[in-house]
Amino acid sequence: MSSSATVVPLAYQGNTSASVADWLNKGDNAWQLVAATLVGLQSVPGLVVLYGGVVKKKWAVNSAFMALYAFAAVWICWVTWAYNMSFGEKLLPIWGKARPALDQGLLVGRAALPATVHYRADGSVETAAVEPLYPMATVVYFQCVFAAITLILVAGSLLGRMSFLAWMIFVPLWLTFSYTVGAFSLWGGGFLFHWGVIDYCGGYVIHVSAGIAGFTAAYWVGPRAQKDRERFPPNNILFTLTGAGLLWMGWAGFNGGGPYAANSVASMAVLNTNICTAMSLIVWTCLDVIFFKKPSVVGAVQGMITGLRVDDTLGVFHTHAVAGLLGGLLTGLFAEPTLCNLFLPVADSRGAFYGGAGGAQFGKQIAGGLFVVAWNVVVTSLICLAINLLVPLRMPDDKLEVGDDAVHGEEAYALWGDGEMYDVTKHGSDAAVAPVVLNTDLSFAAHKQQSDRGEAPLRSFANLAMKPWTTAVSLLLAAAVAMAAAVAAGEGGAANYLVFVDPPPSGVVCTAYQLSILAAALGSEEKAKGAIIYNYKNVVSGFSARLTPSELEAVKKQPQVNRVLPSATLSLMSSNFDGIS
After folding, report:
1. In this structure, are 94 and 226 located in the same domain?
2. What sections of the protein cross the membrane (predicted)?
3. Is residue 12 part of a domain?
4. CA–CA distance from 100 to each of 31, 52, 80 (Å)?
5. 89-104 pLDDT per residue, tens
6. 539: domain range?
């Protein structure tokens, strides 16, 4: 019986093979890959899940997919040209030369990054390279996930109204003309790097850039629909918590990977990151209890919603731009000299509170922050204006009204409610009454409105299992609307519409309440008397009325009105409350 020698593949032959070079430190390489993956998990699925859960139901799919698309698009742009613009050979004091980062020789060779500043005999500056003990492919990966999360943070300011096509164009343009400038200037050997501005792990490059760019883009795109601004409840707080948890754990890689090695600086960064995150959550929760008497989950995750004129959907400006700028400025005050000497490019760096050159460091931090802010305001504005020449930045109003179903033809949940377009292939002909659909939607509306008002749910409503008398009530309501619709046409293009309104305040007579809304819109109590009023236990409220186009617009502008539908669409009578999310 013949035997053959066992052959060990080259990749596992220790330092004798090309895949395990003499300079490779497996521990450093393993940690840097894990750190990069943790940062990637902050985006996918972290922010994808968080965005999908923290927005109104009708925007869940769109918001999550904006984040996922950005992550994918950045990857392709990064390895094709953007990495070398951020960390490659110098082209300008703010930019590297654009070229692919796909060459095998580059990727398997030892990594090289700007590390320290040296002065030649003639006084000119050269940037010495630090060479981490792992391949360049690891660095390309690590820096790519940083770039990707920055674009996803920008998206947080634009959710719920930016055209997806415009977003597809915006991502590569902003990565190319904005992110790469900040990255090269502060990290890749650019002028702020040589000057000694401190940005340990992205306070300026990532957070200030994302916050300012998101805020600026939100200005050019415009605000969300008025009803979305007035009421934008999370559709799934558990998803929001899951995404927040992934963000928290991912910060270990975000800040722990900054030193490019598994060393003591990485250990301190990871520990400090967790302490700061925990303290922030606890302080905000305590403030919620003190001022609002309830511990808000969304408040703990996101922070307060600002009252700015620019509609910043998820508060990216204050959670990233303000926080990042504050972090950079406080570094100029409190940077500890011994720790600075461990990783900073300029010797004897220190905060102002430590004397010496500390005052100059604070000035550098101010200048660096102002440069990042100014660059992002100008470049983001130019990008938005250029895109708007090609495609609209903003979704049309009909899509803003519907949400996911209009933009993607998909919905986050199999519930017929806020944001779903009526589809006869799903719900049957709009000329016929579908009792099961009607009852289901009436039940859903009742339960939801009772829940929003903090009341016990109506036991008489049972989804898809309604008692005969409740079915009869529903059909009577439908019949009333059908009778109104049968009074067909009128002069001036009038048509019959079904109008859903907020339930009347406690103690207010229902009929008078609904008639007052219609009278305010029509400017006449006499005209309003022709409406058919319906109300069920102050849960499902509204009226059916014949309206001209101008009267219809006036009705829609009333703040108590939730939804207006053609009343001939009988099976829709209680399915599309805008207040239901």
Report:
1. yes
2. 30-52, 64-83, 140-159, 171-198, 204-222, 234-254, 266-292, 313-335, 366-391, 469-489
3. no
4. 25, 33, 4
5. 888 889 999 999 998 8
6. 424-572
Q: Is residue 560 part of a domain?
A: yes
Residue 42 pLDDT exceeds 90: yes
pLDDT tens across 400-448, in order? 777 666 676 677 765 544 444 444 344 333 333 333 333 333 434 444 4
Bridge partners of residue 493, in order along the sequence: none
Residue 404 lies in a domain: no
Q: Quick one: 291 and 154 in the same domain?
A: yes
The single-letter code of the amino acid at 260 is Y
Structure tokens at 169: 């164009």
User: What does the block give as tokens for 307?
Assistant: 């009252």
Residue 555: Cβ within 10 Å count: 21
Q: What is the mean pLDDT of residues 475-483?
A: 52
Mean pLDDT for 237-265 is: 89
Mean pLDDT (whole number) for 175-200: 90
Evaluate whether 162 touches 51 at the Cβ level (below 8 Å): no
CA 96 to chain centre: 29
Neighbours of 522 (CB within 10 A): 20
Q: Which of 399, 413, 404 is nearest to 58 (CA)?
A: 404
Whether 3 is in a domain gets the answer no
Same domain, 439 and 548: yes
The answer to whether 514 and 535 are in contact (CB under 8 A) is: yes
With contact defined as beta carbons under 8 Å apart, do 64 and 54 qualify? no
DSSP string over 281-319: HHHHHHHHHHHHSS--HHHHHH-PPP--SS--TT-HIII
Q: What is the dihedral of CA 241, 247, 250, 256, to 10 degrees?
A: -130
For residue 346, the SS3 value is coil
Q: Is residue 172 domain-shared with residue 86, that is, in the same domain?
A: yes
Q: Are residues 310 and 447 in the same domain?
A: no
What gap in Å lies between CA 559 and CA 91, rounded to an integer?
A: 56
When divided into structural domains, the chain yields a total of 2
